[in-house]
Amino acid sequence: MKSSGMLVLFTLMLAPMAAAGQSNPLWTQDEVKNFLPHMTVPEVRDLLTRTDMVIIPVASLEQHGRHLPIGTDYLNGVERAKLIAERTDVLVAPILLPGQSPYHMGFEGTITLPSELVQEVYVESAKSLLRHGFKRFLILNAHGGNRAITTFIVDRINQETAGIAVDLGAAAGPHMPGRPAAGQPPSRPRVFDRHGGVGETSNSLYLTPNLVHMEAAEVATLTMPPHLEAMVDAVVAGDPTATTVFLAEGLKAAETGKGTSAAEMSTTGVWGIRDLGDASAEQGRLEAERFVEGAVAFIERWKELRPVGTP
Fold first, then answer.
1. Domains in the chain, start-ordered, CATH in brackets?
2. What single string gives the DSSP state of each residue in 100-160?
3. pLDDT of residue 198 exceeding 60
4. Would the pLDDT of 186 be above 90?
5. Which of 50, 73, 249, 276 is the most buried (most CB within 10 A)?
6. What pTM was computed for the model?
7. Choice among 1-15, 170-184, 195-209, 271-285 with the minimum mean pLDDT
C-alpha cells in the first residue's frame, strides 16, 4: 500500500514535466501587444474601444544577398509596426508575405505576385477590418518595389470604401526627428549602396539579429548597362533627376529586356558595392527609433484631430 502511494506521488510529479516535454521545441514567440495573429476575439473587441487604427505592412519575399533572409522586408516591416504599437494603441495586421519582386526571380526563393493581385488582397482585407469597426488604415510600405502598389492601395481604400487610409512612411516623415548628436554614426560614404546593402543590413542587425549571417556577407560585383553605370556618381551625389531616371530602368524584370534584373547586374543579389562590414545594429537602432518616433507622433496627432468614435 505504501509503495502504491509512492508510485502515485511519483506519477503526479512527472506529469507536469511530461506535459512540458510535449510542447513544440521550436516555438520561440512571446505574445506581442496589439499584434493581430497573437490576439483573441475578446482582445480585438477591447482594442476597438480604444482605437480604430490599423497598421498594415506591405512587404515582399525576395532575395537579399547571401547574408540576409529572403523575408527581410516582411520581417523588418512587421517589427517596426510592432514597435509603434508598443507606444500607441493601433492594431498591427500583417496580411501577405510576398509583394511585387519580378526583378529578383533570378535568385532562388523569391516569390512575386502581380500588382493587381497584391492590391486586391489588401483592399479586401481592409474591407474585412472595416466590418469589425476599424476605420483608419496606416499602410506601411516595407519594400521599395511596392511604392506604386502602396499608392493604389491607399487610394482605393479612400475611394472605394468607408475607410480612411494614409501612406505611413509619407505621413511620418515630417514628424521624424534628426539624428541625436550622441552616438551619431559617421556621415555615409559616397558609395553606391542600395538593395541588401549596408542600410538594410544595419536594420536587420537591430530588428532581426539572429537571422543575419555576416560571415556570408560579400561585396557584389556589379555589371550595369553603360548608360546607367555613367549615372552612378550623380545618383550617389543625390542628383534628383539622375536618381529618378536611374530607378526607372534599374532593377526591372529580365523579361523587360532592360538588362537590369538583380541576377543580370549583381553576382550576389546585393545592389551596391559598399563594404557590408560597415553595417551595425546601432545604425539600425537609430533608423528604427527615428521612424517609430515620427510614426507615433503622426498617429497621436491624428487621434487628436479625429478621436475614436467619431462618425
1. 36-187+287-305 (3.40.50.10310)
2. --GGGTTSTT-BB--HHHHHHHHHHHHHHHHHHT--EEEEEE-SGGGHHHHHHHHHHHHHH
3. yes
4. no
5. 73
6. 0.89
7. 1-15
